[in-house]
Amino acid sequence: MNDRFNIDDFILNFDPAAPQARFLSGRLGAELVTAEAALPRQVPWPNGLAPTAMPLSKQPSETDDLSKFHGYDAVVVTWTAAEASALASLFTPAFPTASWYEYRHAVNTYIPLVTGAKAPFRDTAADMTRYYHSLGLYFPCTIGQAKVLLFKSGLHLDYDGPATPVFKLMSELAQTVAPKVFITTGTGGGIGTDVKLGDVVIAGTVRFDCQDQFAKESWSKASFTPSKLPPGALEALVPSLTGVNAARIVGARPNPKYFSAANDTIVTTDFFAFDDSTNHFGLQGFGQVCDMGDAMVARALQAFPDIQWYAIRNASDPQISNPSNDIKAAQEQAAAIYARYGGLTTAASALAAWSIIQTSVDFLKTHKDGAVRPGFKLGRKHNG
């Protein structure tokens, strides 16, 4: 058995659809379940609104740009292998991420920027071939009348090094596709006892809390305000949709709670952090869930004021009980919960993305003159 445990490798690269041998033989091997148990089941989508995969008629070259998707209604960016597999289970069920297209357009401009030792972009292992010198995986689909580009990022704020190349990548996506709606979504660590396993934060605020490699950057504590939710978005998240996969998560609510108030916050840290009962990483009081990238996406999107943008995170682990003050043991407990339930909790945030896309795109298409209801404003930088 491999007794080494690399939390960063596991969170980023473990794929419940096709678990890699190093994880099966590692310390969390006993926590891993079959893909059928780990990934979301289909839900009873409303008539005409089920996500539908739209494979390209011709296999694109990995060096192609994304201009063929210019003018798409929405882009949905996710980050880890497990998140992408869960998203594919719901949005492109006949096309798992193993069949998604590889994106390496102008990759040579990124190679000198990615210097982090833990970056999947630099991993030459045989089972990391799809991620080596890869900017991401993508696949198009539709939600109702909306055309949507799904994108699993190959770059990561906390692992790629000081040049933050993910800022360049997110800017490139926004500029090339020019969607009406841009969503970043994924798993995160619940902060505080009010956030239960499987709950979701549709952020009213996204902020940095950089304590490590980016602590001295001018934006290390900056916060941003996402776009206001479109009419009907929360109302569309009915129990018949949200309860299907929530019921499979031990310790979760029968239907996840969606935090969406102006002060409900996603906290982006510059290392793998999580909340525990000792408040080891000092996250309590800053927000409802922590992640490792959304605030940098928000920062990139400040240059695109015509794009509505949203950040969505599901609590793939709750606050971890740590009565013995052993942060390493607490970390492994958080990873074990993620291993078992990260794919299932992702269903609730994928549903939030679905709801925002179909309600906002419908709203925007019915207001082609650019007039929007009071308060339906574009995201803006808050401070920093």
Automatic annotation (TrEMBL):
<dbReference type="GO" id="GO:0009116">
    <property type="term" value="P:nucleoside metabolic process"/>
</dbReference>
<dbReference type="Pfam" id="PF01048">
    <property type="entry name" value="PNP_UDP_1"/>
</dbReference>
<dbReference type="InterPro" id="IPR000845">
    <property type="entry name" value="Nucleoside_phosphorylase_d"/>
</dbReference>
<dbReference type="InterPro" id="IPR035994">
    <property type="entry name" value="Nucleoside_phosphorylase_sf"/>
</dbReference>
<feature type="domain" description="Nucleoside phosphorylase">
    <location>
        <begin position="135"/>
        <end position="335"/>
    </location>
</feature>
<dbReference type="GO" id="GO:0003824">
    <property type="term" value="F:catalytic activity"/>
</dbReference>
<protein>
    <submittedName>
        <fullName>Phosphorylase superfamily protein</fullName>
    </submittedName>
</protein>
